[in-house]
Amino acid sequence: MSEAVKDFVPVRIAVLTVSDSRSLAEDRSGDTLAARIEAAGHVLADRRILPDERDLIADQLNGWCDDPGIDVVISTGGTGLTGRDVTVEAHRDVYEKEIDAFGTVFTIVSMQKIGTSAVQSRACGGVARGTYLFALPGSPGACKDGWDEILAPQLDYRHRPCNFVEIFPRLEEHRRRK
Fold first, then answer.
1. Within 10 Å of residue 142's Cβ, how many Cβ atoms?
2. What are the residue boundaries of the structural domains of the chain, listed by start?
3. Do the bridges between strand 72-76 and strand 131-136 make them parallel or antiparallel, or are there none, so unpaired?
4. What is the pLDDT of residue 152?
5. pTM of the predicted model, to two decimals?
């Protein structure tokens, strides 16, 4: 017996670029994500640029988690090892649950493209208040890889054997009364 064909479900996605030096006009990584989000049929719900400041990043992530018009947040930038790279820490300040395998799978994908330099990325993913949050490195190539190889399939309701979209209704089941 074959499984019924599912219809595509558009997801509302916010993009955050973390950079001390870029503006929207120079944001190639944010442009890469925005174009891929819309080409896939999803909704670009919001887009911002913030400096590498942990509290500002966490505040923006929290605001988007509280916004019923946003299902997913993808940030780009600030995932490296330098002193100003605080995006991962800001994400972890917000996460209720970390998606540990996201960083692992991102490293595997990156290894195929940039070899052992992939070890310098701290890409991560998590869930907070029913919203998925992902932190990708700040290069357009890393954004392409993260979207094309991981996020595009996982944010497609038709992807088998499983995907992030189909469990949206269950992300906050712990908050419901028994």
1. 24
2. 12-170
3. parallel
4. 98
5. 0.94
